[in-house]
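ok new one. same drill as before - structure tokens go in, u give me an amino acid for every spot. 677 of them this time. try not to just spam alanines like last time pls lmao
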């Protein structure tokens, strides 16, 4: 146990090291949330033990000093940081302090609410409307002169669109849009170069290149959020007026910014950003709330490091650091062996995470994560948690690199890599793990949706020897099931009724449930709608399968081979003899055919919809939802974590890309208001 003095010294040293990594080297070593926790602990200790407080403490500083080849620039007005709050309660308490400071009621104040872009803060000086200097924030007083690099930012005006006499500083954030970031990493992979960890690091590193030609090659953007009038040559009463002026001058400003009257709508809109953060074109790590009235700002003033009239509401962290306890391997329904991390539990994006995917053998080697390491875990929305990489701990001895097992952990048979693929497979079709996952998938919501047939029940049926294949499900009897532990006659009857009800499932869902390699929901629906029955589908020649819209050679070959495999033929015979219809009904939708004969590709997560639900919504309105982008594509809906291939193909073919926030409008009208560049 350290004393308070020792802990304060340790925290200051650690925070200074992280400041250097983040601000000076653009290579943060820990997630923001973990950094915030260190800073909060230090401030709490300095508050509890005033004798340990110091004016030069890192808790009272902004950023870090310049340690690069760039010249120093002293800001005409300090570039201060913002204090943080982390939830609605703390935000409400801040609003109360503001109201008290102004002698007003909470609902009498106008608040501007805008996204907090996760980028690099920048100040750009214009004299008589001409760009003369660009500088990073640095320590808030002195930054770095990056003028030549700033001039390479494509959406940044060299001269103000509407003439202005005098000196002004335009402050904002340099960032790389999500779609541009995907393209950038795609380009890095093509060159065999190192990929960027996240858009913020990529933007900061790109701007602070010694050679401006490198910056010019990177897809940098600038969003402005502050106008500093150095000569008092402009007259504004409201923050919103300054934003309007920046927009008139040709600067990008946040379209999501709103001025709201009163604390209640202000808090509600800040929560809107938490719910829609993945729908925005850029990464955000919080919401900034500012008093709109500039005279009221003057009345509230500043602390030593931050304005009292503004606050940042940090959103639940999507990255956290935790300890990697072990690396295990799971076997999926296709036999694919997937390594996963067993972690010390940590709360990420609002949920408790104790396991995270490591994707495949190559990813483990590339990330070089080992049991015992401190690792960064990322979870964005509903996306499966993943390990981003290891945090280097100076002086700590690491274990030997993890090696992929050579044998299946469930059946003991060899694990092999197929061709040039990164994935490893258990090639034993009788592997218990594969059987379990195949039947779970067959009964899942996206397939036959058999209620009561979850993982534990399927495992019980397999262990009891009652089933070994999906066809066995339709031969189960109540008396067999009621003998199992935890299943009385009533529960057994309900389960058999649910299985009986699944016999009428359309062919498209059966094809999904069978887990045929490469045949996803879209291809399954196209095949089922084309052939209408499994009998016709199984008899189709390969070239006929390939001609189906949205199928192509790979999917067609997989379907063709499945239908001709003797084991699969026996399975389908049994399913048919047990009463499955194996037909696709012709459904007439009552919805308006807003997307009739239009192909809409969905990539990434769309809020409020699973992938299957989004595709079904498109089909219900007369459209199709193929798995790839082509010249026939009407538009591409881009959600959270979209596929780089689809985004790049859409750009190449000049296919409109729309944000997921426009999906409802697309369904309702067949059109949209906003596109992604």
């Amino acid at each position: 146990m350290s004393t308070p003095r020792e802990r304060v010294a340790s925290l200051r040293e650690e925070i200074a090291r992280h400041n250097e990594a983040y601000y000076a080297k653009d290579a943060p070593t820990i997630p923001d949330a973990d950094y915030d926790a260190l800073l909060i602990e230090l401030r709490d200790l300095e508050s509890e033990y005033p004798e340990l407080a110091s004016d030069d403490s890192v808790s009272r500083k902004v950023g870090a000093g310049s340690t690069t080849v760039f010249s120093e620039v002293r800001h005409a007005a300090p570039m201060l940081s913002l204090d943080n709050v982390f939830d609605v309660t703390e935000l409400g308490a801040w609003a109360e302090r503001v109201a008290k400071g102004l002698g007003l009621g909470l609902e009498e104040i106008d608040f501007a609410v805008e996204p907090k872009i996760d980028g690099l803060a920048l100040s750009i000086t214009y004299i008589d409307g001409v760009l003369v200097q660009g500088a990073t924030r640095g320590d808030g007083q002195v930054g770095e002169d990056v003028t030549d690099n700033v001039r390479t930012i494509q959406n940044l005006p060299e001269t103000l669109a509407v003439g202005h006499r005098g000196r002004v500083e335009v402050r904002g954030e340099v960032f790389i849009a999500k779609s541009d970031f995907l393209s950038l990493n795609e380009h890095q992979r093509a060159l065999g170069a190192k990929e960027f960890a996240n858009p913020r690091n990529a933007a900061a590193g790109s701007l602070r290149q010694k050679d401006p030609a490198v910056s010019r090659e990177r897809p940098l953007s600038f969003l402005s959020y502050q106008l500093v009038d150095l000569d008092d040559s402009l007259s504004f009463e409201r923050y919103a007026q300054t934003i309007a002026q920046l927009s008139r001058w040709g600067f990008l400003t946040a379209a999501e910014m709103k001025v709201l009257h009163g604390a209640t709508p202000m808090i509600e809109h800040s929560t809107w950003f938490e719910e829609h953060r993945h729908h925005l074109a850029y990464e955000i790590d919080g919401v900034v709330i500012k008093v709109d009235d500039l005279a009221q700002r003057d009345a509230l003033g500043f602390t030593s490091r931050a304005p009292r009239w503004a606050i940042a509401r940090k959103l639940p962290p999507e990255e956290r650091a935790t300890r990697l306890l072990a690396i295990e391997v799971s076997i999926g329904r296709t036999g694919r062996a997937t390594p996963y991390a067993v972690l010390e539990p940590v709360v990420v994006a609002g949920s408790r995470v104790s396991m995270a995917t490591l994707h495949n053998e190559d990813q483990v080697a590339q990330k070089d994560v080992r049991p015992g390491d401190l690792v960064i875990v990322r979870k964005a929305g509903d996306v499966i948690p993943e390990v981003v990489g290891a945090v280097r701990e100076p002086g700590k001895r690491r274990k030997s690199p993890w090696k992929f097992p050579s044998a299946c952990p469930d059946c003991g048979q060899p694990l092999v890599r197929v061709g040039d693929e990164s994935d490893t497979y258990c090639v034993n079709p009788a592997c218990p793990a594969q059987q379990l996952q195949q039947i779970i998938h067959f009964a899942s919501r996206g397939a036959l949706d058999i209620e009561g047939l979850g993982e534990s029940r399927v495992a019980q049926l397999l262990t009891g020897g009652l089933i070994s294949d999906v066809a066995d499900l339709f031969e189960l009897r109540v008396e067999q099931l009621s003998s199992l532990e935890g299943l009385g006659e009533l529960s057994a009857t309900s389960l058999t009724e649910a299985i009986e009800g699944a016999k009428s499932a359309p062919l498209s869902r059966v094809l999904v449930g069978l887990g045929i390699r490469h045949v996803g929901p879209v291809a399954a629906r196209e095949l089922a709608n084309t052939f209408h029955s499994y009998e016709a589908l199984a008899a189709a020649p390969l070239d006929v399968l390939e001609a189906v819209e949205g199928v192509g050679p790979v999917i067609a070959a997989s379907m063709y081979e499945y239908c001709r495999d003797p084991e699969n033929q026996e399975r389908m015979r049994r399913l048919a003899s047990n009463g499955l219809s194996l037909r696709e009904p012709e459904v007439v939708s009552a919805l308006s055919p807003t997307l009739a004969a239009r192909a809409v590709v969905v990539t990434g997560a769309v809020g409020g919809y699973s992938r299957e639900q989004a595709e079904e919504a498109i089909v219900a309105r007369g459209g199709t939802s193929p798995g790839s982008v082509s010249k026939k594509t009407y538009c591409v809906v881009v959600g959270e974590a979209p596929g780089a291939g689809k985004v790049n193909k859409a750009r190449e073919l000049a296919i409109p890309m729309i944000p997921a926030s426009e999906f409802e409008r697309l369904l309702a009208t067949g059109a949209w208001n906003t596109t992604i560049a």
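Residues 84-314 form a domain with the D-amino Acid Aminotransferase; Chain A, domain 1 fold (CATH 3.30.470.30). and btw The chain is about 35% helix and 20% strand.
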